[in-house]
Structures are given as structure tokens and as C-alpha cells.
């Protein structure tokens, strides 16, 4: 009788995949287990930090493009537009790395590695301008602000509201009371009741936040996903990935990833 194999991708003695024998999580675990999952808080952090980052990049690129376009008839305008083009491509590459590390996305690097020549050579600039992903990256950078704003509003309107409700007994004052929407709370028992309702609202809020992060990840993949086998971008993408995945300087001392640690230090 042959032993049953349980490794990944193997089959049992009856010829069935081993994954078919794994028990499905129960309904309570599916609902309340979100509290213990790292992806929940990684996605929540991604949604919250995306708003200030995209606000800054949106304002910067709109200003640079407007200034470069206005000065295009002069010598200053053209180099400014070219520098802005390289900058928005680098920004999209960093956003890709953030999404892969915080949302678990699998977005391949942008296909700019096949470019040849110095950065400011006419041949390389012409190649970058003719690359469809240059303009997809610009579209991503500009539309990302609206997506990040909507995501932040959803998270603050659900999880932020539940935390505000839970803080009712803390901010409650016997003299003035507090006001929550149309409810005038003038007794401590009412504040405690509101806090209990807020605690019950945390779990649904976390599910909404995780769904929001998932939708933002799909938006990233829609605009930034490169075709398989395309030449990957280097430089900024490699450096950003190394920084985010850094295990610390001690990793090199333990004999692991000396070259990676060198790149990480240079990136920092």
C-alpha cells in the first residue's frame, strides 16, 4: 500500500488533490477572523496613507505639466516636461511596489528596461514617449487621487465612525453631554450604549475597509499590469522593492542577502 502524499500540489492515495481535504473555515471564523489577519491592517494602512501621498503627487504633477506646457515655447519647458515624464513613471513604479507588498497584488514591473542610451538622449526619450505604459502610468497617477480620496472617505466613514462611537464614554461630560448625529446624549448610560454599538460595528467596518483595499488593488492592476515576458524596469523599482522588503542590516551579518542589503542602504 502506497503512503498518502500531503505536499503542495500532490494527491492523496485515492487520487484526489490534498487541498480538497482541507476543512473550510467556519462562518464565525470567516466573520471574526478578520481581526487577526495581517492583510486587514496592511490594507487599511495602504488606504489611509494613499490619500496624502496621492494628493501631493497629483498637485505636483498637475503643476509641473502645466508649467512645462506653458513654457514649451522656451528652452526651459521641454526639459521640464521630459523630467516630469520620467518622474511620473517612477512614481507609478513605486506605487506598484507598495501595492504588491501591502495588498498582496502581483503587478509586474513596468516595461521600461529595454530602453537604450543615456537618460536624456533623444532616442531614449522617443522610445519612452512611444511606450504605451508611459501614458498608462500618467493616467494612473492622475486618477489615483480620486480613487484614494474615495477609499479614505469609505474607511473614515465606517471604521472612523465606529471608533468615534466607542470613544463616547471618554469624551462624555456630565455637564454638557455629547451629541452624536441627531442623538443628544446627556447620560452616561447612553454613552455606554453608544460605545457598545460602536464595538459591534467594528467587524463590519473592517470588512468594508478590506474590500476597499481590494478594489484599489484591482484598479492598480488594471492600469499598471505589464504583459508577461516584457522587459522589466530597473533602478527605482528594484530599490523600492529592496527597501520595503528589508530585513535589517543584521541579515547581511547572518550571511543572508549581502547584495540586497547593499542595495537597500544605497536606496535609503
Written description of the protein model:
With 268 residues, the protein is mostly helical. It contains ten helices and two strands; from the N terminus they run ααααααββαααα. The protein has a two-stranded antiparallel sheet. Strand 1 and strand 2 form a beta hairpin. Helix 2 crosses helix 7 and helix 5 runs antiparallel to helix 7. The longest helix has 37 residues. The radius of gyration is 25 Å and the shape is elongated. The N terminus is likely disordered.
List keywords for this structure.
single chain; 2% strand; disordered N terminus
Question: Can you give me a brief rundown of this structure?
Answer:
Helix content is 64%, strand content 2%.
Amino acid at each position: 500500500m502506497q503512503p498518502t502524499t500531503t505536499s503542495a500540489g500532490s494527491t492523496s492515495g485515492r487520487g484526489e488533490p490534498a487541498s480538497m481535504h482541507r476543512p473550510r473555515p467556519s462562518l464565525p471564523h470567516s466573520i471574526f477572523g478578520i481581526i487577526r489577519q495581517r492583510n486587514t491592517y496592511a490594507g487599511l494602512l495602504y488606504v489611509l496613507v494613499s490619500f496624502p501621498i496621492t494628493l501631493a503627487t497629483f498637485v505636483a504633477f498637475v503643476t509641473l505639466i502645466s508649467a512645462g506646457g506653458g513654457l514649451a515655447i522656451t528652452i526651459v519647458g521641454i526639459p521640464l516636461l521630459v523630467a516630469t515624464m520620467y518622474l511620473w513613471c517612477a512614481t507609478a513604479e513605486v506605487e506598484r511596489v507598495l501595492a504588491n507588498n501591502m495588498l498582496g497584488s502581483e503587478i509586474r514591473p513596468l516595461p521600461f528596461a529595454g530602453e537604450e542610451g543615456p537618460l536624456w538622449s533623444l532616442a531614449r526619450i522617443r522610445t519612452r514617449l512611444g511606450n504605451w505604459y508611459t501614458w498608462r502610468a500618467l493616467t494612473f497617477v492622475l486618477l489615483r487621487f480620486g480613487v484614494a480620496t474615495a477609499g479614505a472617505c469609505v474607511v473614515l466613514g465606517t471604521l472612523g465612525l465606529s471608533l468615534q462611537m466607542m470613544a463616547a464614554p471618554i469624551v462624555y461630560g456630565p455637564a454638557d453631554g455629547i451629541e452624536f448625529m441627531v442623538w443628544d446624549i446627556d447620560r452616561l448610560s447612553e454613552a455606554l450604549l453608544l460605545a457598545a454599538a460602536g464595538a459591534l460595528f467594528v467587524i463590519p467596518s473592517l470588512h468594508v475597509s478590506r474590500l476597499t483595499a481590494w478594489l484599489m488593488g484591482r484598479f492598480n492592476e488594471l492600469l499598471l499590469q505589464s504583459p508577461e515576458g516584457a522587459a522589466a524596469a530597473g533602478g527605482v523599482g528594484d530599490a523600492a522593492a529592496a527597501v520595503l522588503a528589508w530585513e535589517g542590516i543584521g541579515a547581511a551579518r547572518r550571511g543572508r542577502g549581502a547584495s540586497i542589503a547593499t542595495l537597500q542602504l544605497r536606496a535609503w
